[in-house]
Predict the structure.
Amino acid sequence: MNPVFSRLLVVILAWPLLVWGEENAPRLRPSFDASQRAWLEDHRQLRVGLLMQAPWALYDRRLQRLSGANVELMGRLLQGMGVEPVWVRFADQAELDGAVRRGEVDLAPGLVQTPRGLRLWLYSGPYMRVPHLVVGERRDTSVVDLERLERSDVLAVRESSPAFDYLRKNYGNLQLQPVTSERSALTRLLRQEVGYAVLDEARLSLLLREPQFSALSIVGDIGLPQLLRIASRRDQPLLAQIVEQTLQTLPAGEIERLRARWLPLKYPQVSDSLAFWRSVSLMLLVVVMAVVAIMLHLRQQRRSLERQLLEARLALSRREAAEQALRLAQFSIDHSTVGILWVNWDSHVRYANQAAEAMLGYASGALVERPLQALEPSLSMDRWLSLWKLARAGEQALPGFESDCRRADGGSLPVDVSLSFLRFDQAEYLVVFLSDVTERRRARAALQESEARLKGIAGNVPGLVFRLERAAVEQPVVFAYISEASAELVGYPAAELQRADRGIRSLVHPDDQLSYRKSQDAALAGDSDWQWQGRILTRHGQLRWADIKATARRLGEGRVVWDGIVWDITENKQVELELGESRARLRELSAHLESVREEEKARIAREVHDELGQVLTVLKLETAMCELACAGQVAELDQRLQSIKRLIAQLFQLVRDVATALRPPILDAGIASAIEWQVRRFEARTQIPCLVEVPEQVPKLSDGKAIGLFRILQEALTNVMRHAGAHSVQVRLSLEGDELCLWVSDDGKGFAVEQRKPGQSFGLVGMQERVLMLGGQLSIDSRPGEGTTLCVRVVVSEEEVA
C-alpha cells in the first residue's frame, strides 16, 4: 500500500483519541525565566480593569459575582501565571484610561489597539476576532454585497462607532442612518424603516436571544473586524512579556469554547463539519474509513490535476487574449485617422504610427529619429522646450493649435496639433496628435463664401431679411441676423435692431402692437410659421405698411429658427385701402339705389292699386248699370256685357298681382308672416312640399332689412325651383343672440361650391350683395347629390329688439 495512504489511515483511526486527548489533556503552564518568576513573586496580586459591557463582563448583584468572557479568560490566564486577580470595574474606556494613568490598574482584557492607546498600554497579540456583521430579515440565504447596494437600501449603524466611520469613508454608495444604540438599529429594522443593521458580534449575540429579534439573521460582513488584545501598563514591559507567553500556552480550542459560550452565533464553520466527521468516524468501521480515505485522496488528486489543467488553459487563453488585444491595439493605432508621434525631449521622433507616415508621405520607419522641426518649421527648439516644460509641469494635455506641416514631397499639409505629456518605461515623451484638417479648411472657406453670398443677396433684396433663433425651449428668442437693408427700410442700422430692447417690435405702430404680439407669440409657442401685416413707423416718423413672413425650422434639442423677410407693401396697401373704400362707396350707392328702387316699387304699387283699382271699380259699376238697363233686350249685348265683366275681374287680379310683386302688403304684418306667406305661395305654385318654422315673437325689423330678407328668400326659392330638382324644402327663421338667422334647405341635386365660377350665378351674387348691404353674412353648404343649405345672418340692432 502507498505510504501516504497508510499514514492517512492511521490519522483517521487515531482522530477520536486525538480529539479526546485535546479536550481532556492537562493545561500546560508557561515556562518563565528567572526575572519573570521573581517579578511574579513580588506581585502575587494583579489589578485587572474590566469594562462592564455584556457579554464581556457582567456583575450579578444577588450572588456578588463577576462573569463574562473577559472574566473567564483572565481567570484562566492569571491561574496560569500563578497570581490572584483584583477586579476593578469601569463604565467606559475613558475611566479605564484615567485609571491606568493614575497607576490603579495593571491589566485590561478585550481592548482594541489604537494609536492613542499605545501611549498608555502595551498590547499583546490578538486572541479573538470580533467581526461587524450585517443583519437583515430572513428572506433567503444570499450574502449581501455592500458594493452592490443601492441608495434606497438604508443601513442603521451606531453613531460615533468605528463601523460608522469605516462605512462612510469606504462605501459612498450607501445611505447610512446613525442610531444611538444597537437595540435601536434592530428595532428600526423590524419596523422596516431601514433595510439592514450593522452590529458587532458580541452585541448581536445578546440581542438575538430576545424573542422579538428572533426573525432576524446575519446576511453579511462589512470587513472590519475588532482584534481583541490584553493590555498591560506601559511602565511594566516584563508584565507584557509574561501575559504574551501565558496567552500562547492556552489550548487551541480554549478561545473558541469561550466564543461558543458567550457569543453563541451559528456560522457555517469548518469546526461544524469536523464535529460531524468526528461523530461519524466513531461509528464507521476501519475498512470503510480506509476506502473513504483512499477515494477522497484519489478525488483530491484528480481535482488537483484538473485544477492545474484548468489554470493552465486559463493562463493560455489569457495570454492569447492579451496578445490579440495587443495586436488589435496596434492595428487600431496604425490605422487610426489621427497621426501619433512620440517625441523625446530633444524633439526627435521615437515612434510614428502608419497614419502619421501616410499623412506626411514618408515610408515606414522613415520618421523615426527625425527632428520635429523638419515637419513643422515654426516649431523651433526653444519653442519645443517651452512646450515640454509646460506639459511636464502640468502633466496634462496642452491646448491644441492649427498649423501647416511639411510633407516629404515638400508640400504643405494643414493639421490640428495637440500635445500630451506621457511617462512610459522610465522615459518621458510628448505625444503629438496630428489631425488632417484639409476638408475642414475647405468647408470653412466654403462657409465664409456662402455667408458672404448670403449677405450680398440679403443686402440687395428689397426688404428686411432676418433670422430669429431660440437655443432651447426655456431660452429667450433673439435676432441672430438682420440684413443691412433695414437702414433703407426703417432708417435704423441692423446692429441697433438686433439689441434685446429693440427688435422689429419697437417699430410697430401702437395701434397694431396687440395683433403683432398675438401673431408672434402664437408662432413662438407652437414653433410654427409666422405671418403678419400691419403698420410700422420709420426712424423719421413715416408710416409704412409691412408684411412679415417667416418659416420655422426645428433643429433638434429644442432649438428652433425662423427665417423671414419684411416687405414694404405701403403702395399696395394704399391701393388696397382705396379699392376697399371704393367698393364700400359702391356698395353704399347700390344700397341707396336699392332703397330708392324699393320705395319706387312701393309707390307704383300704391298708385296701381289705388288709381287702377278706382278706375276698374267705376268700370265695373258702369257695366253693372248697363246690364241692369239692357238686360234681356239684346242677346248679343248680354254676351258682351258678361265678357266685359270677366275682363274687369281679370284686370282686378292682374292689378293685385302687380302690386304684390312690387311690394307684398304682407310685409306690413312682419317678416315672419311674410316668409310663411311666400313659402305657401311657392308650395302652391310648384307643388313642392315645404316645411316652415318661424318663431312666435320676432323683433320688428327696419323696412330695409325686412324687404332684403324677403327678396333673398324669393331668390333662394326661385333657384330651388329652377336648378335644384328638389322633392322638399325646409325654411326656418330663428333668433340667435343678437342675430336673426334665415335657413333655406332643400334635398335637391346640390353643387360643388368651390367649383362655382365668378359671374356664373347672378342670383347668388345678388343675394351676397344684399346681405353685405344689410351688414350680415351669407353661407352656402352644398355637395353634389346631397342638397343645398343657405344661411343668412343679419344683426338686429338694440332699437329693433326694443
The mean pLDDT is 77. Residues 570-630 form the longest helix (61 residues). DSSP finds 23 helices and 28 strands in the chain. Residues 26-127+229-250 form a domain with the D-Maltodextrin-Binding Protein; domain 2 fold (CATH 3.40.190.10).
